Amino acid sequence: MKNCSINIIKRQFFTYRQPYFNKLPKFYNNFQSKMTLITISQSLDESYTKHKVVPEVIDQFDTQGLLSIEFKENHMVSLGNLLSVEATQSVPKIQLTLNSPTQDGKIESIDKDDKFILVMTDPDAPSASDHKWSEYLHWLVTDLKLNHDQNNNQDISHFILAKDGNELVEYNGPAPPPKTGKHRYVFLLYKQDPNVKDLKAPKDRPNWGTGIPSSGC
């Protein structure tokens, strides 16, 4: 997907190791300070490099907001934390909080008619040292629109409801093979190219159907 005509908005990822998982705070619903978002963006960028999400999964990009992902019972995705297989089998709740408005009052380049693509992919399939199935596609939803948080007057917080989009590949929870170590599961949110009208599902989940190891989003 690196060469396709869609622009990345945000990504988050987590790693799995059974049975340990980290519990983190609730969604970051409001960010009143630019400094707060700048600090968060810097931390995210540093974490992507540390865990080699950049450049192994996707090329470098400018962070435009915070993608919050919560599985059942408040199991949050955050900066490569560890979550159990059991906690991640259901479709998560997802919220996008955009960066603070620019000086002219604009919030990024998001329009009410814009559509988005949501991806969950595993670059460590079947393991971090063997990429014959990498990347493994776990979820692909297109034609998503941002749902506004009615309590947020700044219009920077949006819930993403996968059921309202076009689920090209249904959610398939993490299932790392035994003795393959930790896996990185990466969530990506792309701004969909309005000129592309007929997006199709990949032929298969392993390698996104290309048959080429380490290929995918």
From TrEMBL:
InterPro entries: PEBP, PEBP-like_sf, PEBP_euk, Phosphatidylethanolamine-bd_CS. One of its GO terms (molecular function) is phospholipid binding. Residues 198-217 are annotated as: Disordered. PROSITE patterns: PBP (PS01220). CDD domains: PEBP_euk (cd00866). Coiled coil: none annotated. Gene3D superfamilies: PEBP-like. Belongs to the phosphatidylethanolamine-binding protein family. This is Uncharacterized protein. It comes from Candida verbasci. The lineage of its organism: Eukaryota, Fungi, Dikarya, Ascomycota, Saccharomycotina.
